[in-house]
Each structure stands twice: as C-alpha cells, then as structure tokens.
Amino acid sequence: MQFLQRKSTNLAAEAASIRRWQAVIEFDLDGNILEANPLFLQTTGYERSEVVGKHHAMFVLPEERQSEAYRTFWRDLKSGKAFQAEFARLGKGGNTIWLQATYTPICGTDGKHPFKIIKYATDITAIKETVSNAEGQLAAIRKAQAVIEFDLDGNILDANDNFLQAVGYAIGEIRGRKHAMFVEPSERGGEAYKRFWQKLGRGEYDEGQYLRIGKGGRQVWIQASYNPILDALGKPYKVVKYATDITATKLAADALQAAVAETGAVIAATQAKDLTRRVPLAGKVGEIGELCGGINALLDSFTGVIQSVGELSARINSGSRRIGSASKDLAQRTEEQAASLEETAATTEELSASVKQSFERASDAASLGAAANDVANRGGSIVNEAVVAMERIEQASRDISDIVRVIDDIAFQTNLLALNAAVEAARAGDAGKGFAVVASEVRTLAQRSSESANDIKGLIHNSTTQVTNGVRLVQQAGSALAEIVTSSTSVSSALDEISCASREQASGIEEVAKVVAHMDEMTQRNSSMADQSAGIAAELQRVTDTLQSLVEGFLVSAQAANDHAPMAGRVPRAANG
Asked: Could you tell me what percent of the chain has a pLDDT over 70?
C-alpha cells in the first residue's frame, strides 16, 4: 500500500513537472476539450473558459476539419493509437501555430480501453519558421543552382538536375564515383588537389571559378562554393557544392578580354598615329562583335576624317600660300596705288587750280571776244563803206577815161587840123609860113596833148586797174571781215561755252579731287588691311603647316602600312579611304 502511494506520488510529481514545461490539453474520446494547462492556453492565446467543452477542431485549419484524414485521426486515437508529429494549429485570432506534439490515449486499469486523450505539445513556431525559411532558401538555391553532395573523401552522394544538366551525366553515372572525374587529368594527382580536399575535410570553405570536365570531355566553367556541412558536434561529415554554370559567361569574358587586348593594341597603334590596324572580327559575335565592328567603323570614320583633313589642310595650305603671296602683292600694289593716288590728288589739285585759272582766262577771253566782235562788226561796216567809196572811185575813173578819150580825140582832131593847116600854109607859101609855124606849134601841142592824154589814159588805166584791184581787195576784205565777224561771233559763243565748260570742269574737278582724296584715304586703309591680310595669311599658313604636319604624322595608307612590320588585325586600306 505504501509502495503504491509512493508510486502515485512520484507519477503525480512527474506529471506536474511535465505540465510546467509543456503545453498540455486533455480531450475525451470524441475530441471535446476537458482541460488545458496555462502554458497551452498561453501558447494558443485563449482563456480556459473559451476552450473547455469545445471540440478539438477549433484548433484545426479549416481545410482539414471536414477531411477524411481528420476523421481517421480521431478514430485511431479512440482505438488507443498514439501520434507524435509536427502539427499546424490555429491560435486565437486565426494565427498559425506550429506544435511538436504527442497525442497519447490514456487507458484504464485494464490497459486496453482508453477513456481520454492527453496531448503534450511544445511551441516550435519560431523554429519551424526558421527551418521553413532555411528550407525555402535551400529549395530556391537548389532550383536556381547546380548542387552536388560529397562525403569527405570526395565520393559523390547526390546531385540535382541542374548539376546533371550542366555536366551532361545522369545520376546513376556519377553516384558513388569520385569528384576527380570532373577534374582535368593533369590536376587529379597534383598536390594542390590533395590540399583542396584536406581543406574541405577540416571544415574550411572554398569558393571560386573552376574548370570542370563534363561528359564527353566537354569543358564546363562553374562559379562554385564548396561548403562543409557540420554535424551536431560541429564536425564536418559531408560537402555540398553550390554551383552556377558560367561557361558561356566565361567564354564571353575570355572573348571580351581577348577583344579588349586586341582593341587595346589597335588603340595603342592609333595613339601612335597608326590608323591602318583594325580589330579582327573572326569568331566575334553578339555585343562583342558589334563593339569591335563599331570600333573598326569609328577608326574608318576617323581615318576618313584624317584623310579629308589632310587633303583640306593641303588645299588650305596651298591656298594660304597663294593668299599670302597675293596679299603681299596686293599690299605692294596698294601702296603703289596709294602713292599714285597721292600724286593724282596733287595733280588734280593743280589741274583744278589750272582749270580755275583757265576759267578766269576764258571769261576774260569771252569778254575780249565780245569786244573784238564789236570791233569786227564796226570794221565790217567801214569796209562796206570803203567798198562803196571804191566803187564810186572806179566810176569816177571810168568818167575820167571817157574825158581823156575825148581829149585824145580833140588832140587827134587838132593834130589833123594842124596837119591840114600846114598843108595849106605850104600851099600859101610865104604867106603861110607864119601860119605854118602856128600850125606846127599847134600840131606839137596837139601831139603833146595826145601824148599827155595817152599818158593820162595809161595812168587812168593803171589807176582803174588798181582801183579795180582795190575794189576787189576791198570786197575780199569785206568778205573776210564778214567771215571774221561770223568767226568772231562763233569765237565769242565758243568762248562763252568754254567759259561755262571751264566753270563746270572746275566744279567737276573739285568733285574729282574730293573723290580722289576719298579714294586716297580708302586706299590707305586698304593698304593697311592688305598688310593685315598678309599677316593673317602668314599666320594661317603657319597654322596649316602645323595642321599638315600633324595630319602627315598619321599612317593611313596601305603602302605606308606595308612599310611596317606585319601585326595582327592590320587592315590594308587605300590611300583614299
């Protein structure tokens, strides 16, 4: 009896101890709640009054309550079968709780027929969430990465589909084999490979990029981490490798590195002014091919620019030389023109003064011409009167000739009479001697009268001739004076016109002098600008010479390229691009 009491006391104490550290709830065989300890109530968030008498289903997820599995679960408990597992249950407010629980049927004294169910539970919600998080992450890693597991000797334990796909094997072809099957033969027996597995055996982590051999000898590049897995005592017991197939990336990186090296060589040659080299495009695809092609196209464009600049600089250089020479010639000619314009300006001033003086003299000559015209008009009138007087003298001469002719006739008659008287006196003899003497004297007088008449006649004839000549000369003088008058009038008009023209010439020459002075000023400025242009042309020539020397420093022609040692990527190009 005392033994039974002590055993009962011990069992009660053990039960009390368990209830202090675990959540405990009791059910009848139909699942109705009989009792729950404070730890269970605290875990679920309920008060005792809120759960006692309620069915266990209040803690079950809604999708499980009406399931056949849930009904089977309680049938098994009712028959005396116990359950131990992790269960997802609902706390107050609908929050999910994970419990590590044991459902234990309590039997009567016969030990066969249960009369209630007691559940002992531990809240593992935090642990479950941590484990679920870790499992989720591992699942995500295994889904995204290639995973393979080894023991510490490098024997393959397992591998996921990603890894098998990366190396090209099936799981049956690799399980139980050594990790060395993926390593290059030259590395398998090496000291470095032994140290690699010794390091992992010590529980040390290793990470990097590795070259591995897949099925058929295919090279596979992986970015991997070898992770020793520790047991509960902190000792490694296996190695898990998480890997990513970076073969394409590695090949692309190698191709990019090679392209960078080739591009660097081309750029270095370009910096050395060798524009004949190009990046080889063989085997380059995708963005690398486009990049290298773009660099080549850029170099082609740059080469074309250099060639164009070279041609233009040569043309500019030639033009600047011609401009410089022409500017010098222009400056010299402009200076000469300026000097000539100065002389012209001085000459124009002198000419202006001379024209003014000529204008004054023309004005005086016009006045004199007017006076001479008046005198000529008066001379013409006098000559006309002289012509009339000469005509009267000529008429008088003709009258005198008539008188002399009468006197000559009288002298002839007198002489004839004297001759007759002499004849008669001769006939009379002595009586007629005195008469004969008289007749002789008369005859002599008649002869002398006749001679005198003849002399007068000759004189009158000469006088008439002279008068006629005088009349003719006077008429000619009259005509000449008339012409002189006409000419004098014309001269006077011409002098007036000359005077007007001289005045206009003086005014025009003054304007010309002003224009010449302005031209002289502009020519002086042009001369200065021509000197500046010559200086600018010389500076332009120096600049173009510098530009030409810079452009000539670039190697762009195929012939120039052939003069150098052959290099990879050199592209023969014509001189014209």
From this structure: 90
